[in-house]
Amino acid sequence: MLAVLLGAAVSAAAQPNPWAVAPATAAPAAPALSLGSPLPVSGGPWVAAEVLFFSAGRVVADYAWRDSVRARRGHLYTAADLQSDVQDLMTLGRFTALTPSIYAIPGSPVPSEFSAVSVSTNQVRVVFDVTEKVVEAPKVKIVTPPTAVGGVLLTPTAWRGAGRFENPGMALDINAAYFIGRLYGKTSYLDAPRKTNYIDRIGLWTLTADGKMQVQSESTLRPAVAVGGQAMLLFRDSPQPTVTAPGVSVKIDTKNTKILTDGYFVASKKFGPIRTSAGMMQGTIGNLAANMSEFLSPEALKFYLRDTAGTQVVSRTVPFANVFYLLKPDFPIGVEVMKFNGAARRPMLINFKLGRFLKLNFDLALLKYQGGYDLLGVFQFRYNHFPKR
Hints:
The protein is mostly beta strands. The protein folds into two domains: 15-132, Ubiquitin-like (UB roll) (Roll), CATH 3.10.20.310; 169-386. The protein is 9% helix and 45% strand. It is built from four helices and 19 strands. It has helices spanning 2-14, 63-66, 79-90, 298-304, and strands at 37-39, 46-55, 58-59, 76-77, 95-109, 122-132, 169-187, 196-197, 200-216, 224-236, 243-245, 248-250, 257-271, 274-283, 317-328, 331-339, 348-353, 362-369, 372-386. The strands form three sheets. Strands 7-9-10-13-14-15-16-17-18-19 form a ten-stranded antiparallel β-barrel. The two termini are 80 Å apart. Mean pLDDT is 86; it is low at 1-14 and 23-30.
């Protein structure tokens, strides 16, 4: 009798599975050890005891898969149920191959009410061996945050944050600019040893805290208006170029750290995609120009222009204007103008925000004064601290 049962089990296991769903490469077989005696999947009905899922030889517990199966403990389970379960599981879209199997569990007799119906005297274990689809991890797209529109290079605007805070309120920007050097310059000073200068180190850092309060929001006709103040820490990583004349060489300033401040008001208006601003600064920010070129220092005026009155290039009123355009949310281009009213040699600073074209955040500045000009290279970074983007 035992030999007959073993022969029947081997014969059932050798039969092809009519409901196996598999690609050209078959799914790995579920381990047969300890599962029970294999039964033909085209037989039935059976009394289900449990349902197992195997993937790559491991038991997988996924309740979403289990809930798609009709087999319930202690209930009849038919071949039609098994076929429907295979179809329902494949519609989940999670598998490339699925092979069902039925195993009789030794020592677990079927309930007496099913003994005349079940083809097996033991309850069965329903096993699905699956090959899961390989899901590639989505590529992480690095999104650059939108640029802060609270200012251009050194001049502010009346907007806050990235431009989406349209109601009046407070704002704080942190701005760093590094004037690395003079790329090219000309001067017509009488006693200057060279009339043309290029590739000269400046090494001037400005670190600015710009706090403002927008007092009027922008509408179709009226501009946004803000008042604020700036505190600029100015320091050098190399001395300012010296003034040299026949028999004389003079250091301009041995003080490498200064603090410049200003209060300002500014009005800003959008004209289509173009953003424009104009305003006025009041304070020691007017001393900035003299720190950008040795030709605006008292020593240069004395030795190169024979000015013995000790004239200094200082101003307390700086009107400004700026225009910029966002090619992309994080790609601004623009220009700003600062005029140092009342200062000797009538300096004017024009900053061009064009660095993204070079992929280096490298910008240009033109310092124009009576008697010459300097074209400067600038690195600039603006961080919107409040309100957040």
